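User: What would this chain look like folded?
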Amino acid sequence: MKLWIGNMAPETSDDELKAFLKKYAPDLECSTIARVEGAGNRPGALIAFEEASRAGLDALGRRLNGMFWKGHELVSTVYMAA
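Assistant: Here's the prediction, encoded as structure tokens.
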């Protein structure tokens, strides 16, 4: 399963993103991060998790959606892997 996080601060590194996710979901392990540039100042990332439950990702997505981080209001959505 994957989690989309949009409207991140452009300078956010993968390590910062992983640490941020770990803070709110310590039991979930990020396997890959695919960056999406967006409209210049609103980049996003599609983050894949191995062995994550739908309930766990839904909870994380709800927690992060609308949260302010590094001066930006995040948008998050859970995607089922195809």
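The chain has two helices and six strands. If you want, I can go into more detail on any region.
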